[in-house]
Amino acid sequence: MKAAVLHKIDDLRIEEVPCPEPRAPDEVVVRIKSCGICATDYKAIRGIRRNVKFPFIPGHEPAGVVTAIGAGVLHFKEGDEVICQPSGYCGYCEHCRVGNTHYCDTAFTTGGDGPEDVWAGAFAEYMRTKEQCLFHKPANISFDAAALTEPLSGAWKGVVQYSEMKVGDDVVIIGVGSIGLLCLMVARAAGAGRLIAVDNSAHARENALRFGATHAVDNSDGQARERVYGIIPGGPDLVVEAAGPIGAVRLMVDLRRRGTKWNLFGITTHEKFELDGGLTHFLEGRMDASFGTTPLAMQNAIRLMERQLVDPGRIVTHRFKLEEMDAALAVMDGTVRNKVIIHP
User: Fold this and answer.
1) For 168-210, how does the pLDDT look when each residue is reduced to its tens digit (9 = 90+)?
2) What pLDDT is recorded for position 50?
3) Stretch 148-152: mean pLDDT, rounded?
4) Which three-class secondary structure state does DSSP give residue 245?
5) CA atoms in the 13 A half-sphere facing the CB of 103
6) Domains of the chain, each with CATH number or no CATH
7) Using N-to-C axis directions, what is the helix angle for 149-156 and 178-189, rounded to 10°?
């Protein structure tokens, strides 16, 4: 089969590699129909993320069709259209038993990062995974939208499950690239009151207004706090940092008022920011963070799509064949795009 193999930083090659087969009774092989390019994939290829062991097939946002099953697979058969969760888990450790499968002591990931055990990912024609990582794709969800279940599930997990957004809450989303837009769409579906998108990019702000933001604020001159408080003088109920740069985290800290909940969602690099201890004490807010996904979050994301409350396919701006990975990465290098999808 054809696969995009990362041999070293900025050395991604389309190569012929052996087609995977089930190696254990609970394993399946999926023919990949669509796979999103996540920022973490892009960072691995460009060398921004260094926890990569070469050679490596990236890609961890796939949907496709089952083509082979192990002898012990019970709930899926060849020909089933499926959504793939990238993170696998044992199901028996203390973390798994309480539902935190993304903390699993012996976790693996297909094409992603986090666990030490990294399986070949979905920038390929076929991918091997475990039955536990599959979800049946509803017929009314396109493969492109289905491929975005994992990032949508992360948005649901961060905004609804962890930060417990309430109907009518005033919400600020800092950074409205693809993941920020998904957070925004989840907040909109969950009944946000005033929903403010903050981004330096005019393109991103225009998208945010199209996808449900009530206001879009520029921070390229560092005046976002003043603009946000001009819209909501009482301050936000919830701030979600979905941008990544440390400056976005600092802005999130500056936006707090008493009782504000704030979620570190976008930053993955090890950079520091300061808190005034006394002020943080008296503001009595709550900080959350969210990474990865769980079966609970995946299932809720599928429900949102199946019931047509959120359509992540709307944020797809570019589609490329596997052989066009270089062109796809060139688009990722730029800023005038949302979600980029690969069709192996």
Assistant:
1) 999 999 999 999 999 999 999 999 999 999 999 999 999 999 9
2) 83
3) 97
4) coil
5) 9
6) 2-137+311-343 (3.90.180.10), 162-289 (3.40.50.720)
7) 60
Copy the structure tokens of residue 138: 């509803």
Residue in the block written with tokens 């946002």: 61
Q: Hey, is 304 helix, strand or coil? A: helix
pTM: 0.95
Residue 335 burial (CB count, 10 A): 13
Q: Which one-letter amino acid corresponds to residue 112?
A: G
For residues 201 and 140, what is the distance between their CA atoms, to the nearest angstrom?
33
Whole-number Å distance between alpha carbons of 195 and 75: 40
CB 142 within 8 A of CB 339: no
Identify the CA nearest to 3 among candidates 53, 46, 57.
Answer: 57
Q: What does DSSP assign to residue 160?
A: I
Q: Tokens representing 81?
A: 């259209």
Contact 32, 344 (CB under 8 A): yes
Tell me 11's DSSP state: E
DSSP state of 170: -
CA distance 290 to 267: 10
pLDDT greater than 90 at residue 114? no
